[in-house]
Automatic annotation (TrEMBL):
UniProt keyword Ion transport present: no
InterPro entries in alphabetical order: DUF423
Residue ranges crossing the lipid bilayer per the database entry: 49-65, 72-91, 103-126
Cellular location(s): Membrane
Family indicated by similarity: Belongs to the UPF0382 family.
Keywords from the UniProt entry: Membrane, Transmembrane, Transmembrane helix
Name assigned to this protein: Uncharacterized membrane protein YgdD (TMEM256/DUF423 family)
Chief localization: membrane
Alphabetical list of Pfam families matching this protein: DUF423
Membrane topology of the entry: Multi-pass membrane protein
Length: 130
C-alpha cells in the first residue's frame, strides 16, 4: 500500500472513531460520569480529531517527501494511540474494576510523539529550499 493511501486511511479511521467516541461521550457517558471526567474524555476526542485532520493534510500534500511522510505518520499514529487512548481509559476509570491510573505515564509520551511529528514538519518547512 502506498504511503499516501496508508496515511489517508488512518486519517479517515481516526476521524470516524473520534466522531463515534465523541457521540458516545456526549450521550452514554454523560449519564454515568461526572463533568470533570467527561471534559477529560473530550480532550482525547479533540486531539484525535485534530490529528486525523493533520494526517489528512499530510496524505494529500506534495510539499513533503515520502520519507518524512512515513515518519510523521508513525509518530502521529502512535502518539494519538498513546495520548488519546490513555485519556479515554483514565477518564472512564471509575466505570470498571481495572485501575488505569497505572498507565497514566503513557499520556505525556503520546503527547511528546505528537509534538515531535509537528516539529519534524516545522523543521522541514523552515529548512526547505524554495
Amino acid at each position: 500500500m502506498h504511503i499516501d493511501t496508508k496515511i489517508r486511511s488512518m486519517a479517515a479511521f481516526l476521524g470516524m472513531t473520534a466522531i463515534i467516541l465523541g457521540a458516545f461521550g456526549a450521550h452514554a457517558l454523560k449519564k454515568v460520569l461526572p463533568i470533570e471526567q467527561l471534559n477529560t474524555f473530550e480532550v482525547g476526542v479533540k486531539y484525535q480529531m485534530y490529528h486525523a485532520l493533520f494526517l489528512l493534510f499530510i496524505g494529500f500534500t506534495d510539499a513533503i517527501q515520502e520519507s518524512l511522510k512515513q515518519k510523521v505518520f508513525w509518530f502521529t499514529s502512535l502518539g494519538v494511540f498513546l495520548f488519546s487512548g490513555s485519556i479515554y481509559l483514565l477518564a472512564t476509570d471509575s466505570l470498571n474494576e481495572i485501575n488505569f491510573k497505572t498507565i497514566g505515564f503513557v499520556t505525556p509520551i503520546g503527547g511528546l510523539l505528537l509534538i515531535v511529528s509537528w516539529g519534524m514538519l516545522l523543521f522541514h518547512f523552515l529548512t526547505k529550499k524554495v
